[in-house]
Amino acid sequence: MSRSSGELVGYWDRQAATYDRRSAGVERRFLADSRRWVCGRARGATLELAIGTGANLRHYPEDVDLTGIDWSAAMVDAARRQADRVHRAVRLHQADATALPFPAATFDTVVSTFALCCVPDERATLIEALRVLRPGGRLLLADHVAASFWPLRALQHAVDLISVPLQGEHYTRRPVTTLRGLGVTIEETERLTMGAIERVDARKPH
Questions:
Q1: From CA 123, how far away is CA 118, in angstroms rounded?
Q2: Is the CB of residue 197 less than 8 Å from the CB of residue 34?
Q3: How far apart are CA 111 and CA 201, in angstroms?
Q4: Distance between CA atoms of 85 and 98, rounded to whole angstroms?
Q5: Integer Cα distance of 42 and 172 in angstroms
Q6: Residue 195, burial from CB neighbour count under 10 angstroms (0-12, 13-18, 19+)
Q7: Residue 22: enclosing H or E segment and its boundaries?
Q8: Tens digit of pLDDT per residue, the chain (206 long)?
Q9: Strand, helix or coil at 82?
Q10: What element of type H or E holds 154?
């Protein structure tokens, strides 16, 4: 059984102070290029789901009107400090990605990087992201997913047995598969690292 949302929020609150330092090697080697790929495509009023410590902030175009949410208050504070460091204007809110505090059709772009692996309900999160997107709006994702290389995929299934109960982190999800069942137009996908990282550029129908 997975941990409750309240327990998971507490877990991420405790991680915020040291997260960047502990993940620096993985960030440089595996994640940073996908952050640039995703954030560089954002346009107009943009919402970032699960902004975490603000690792994406330096990668957005200057003219993007940026809003970020995270369910962890400590992560929101970390993102605010990062925004100050990189001189990035951003409105930050503590909020649940499955119950966003915004009206329908508010944003031109919604971004999520390396976060859908950690939400309790991936499908509900994607449905909510699409709700707040304007018709024709862009949904941009990057995440670690079930690998295309089967030995690695088998290892991911084994890791899930520990990571899901411990910290709610899933290694065998694949958000693009869920999106295809939601009537979204998939414009581009790209898989890296034996298929274990996937980037997705999708659009909400008009």
A1: 12
A2: yes
A3: 10
A4: 29
A5: 26
A6: middle
A7: helix 19-22
A8: 344 778 889 989 999 999 999 999 999 999 999 999 999 999 999 999 999 999 999 999 999 999 999 999 999 999 999 999 999 999 999 999 999 999 999 999 999 999 999 999 999 999 999 999 999 999 999 999 999 999 999 999 999 999 999 889 999 999 999 999 999 999 999 999 999 999 999 999 98
A9: helix
A10: helix 150-167
39, 66 Cβ separation under 8 angstroms? no
Angle at CA 112, nearest 5°, toward 183 and 127?
35
Question: Collapsing DSSP states into helix, strand and coil, what is residue 157?
Answer: helix
Give the span between the Cα atoms of 166 and 117, in whole angstroms: 13
For residues 69 and 71, give the distance between their C-alpha atoms in angstroms, rounded to a whole number: 7
CA distance 63 to 138: 16
The rounded distance, in Å, linking the Cα atoms of 184 and 93 is 27
Nearest of 196, 108, 91 to residue 152 by alpha carbon: 196
Query: pTM of the entire structure?
Result: 0.94
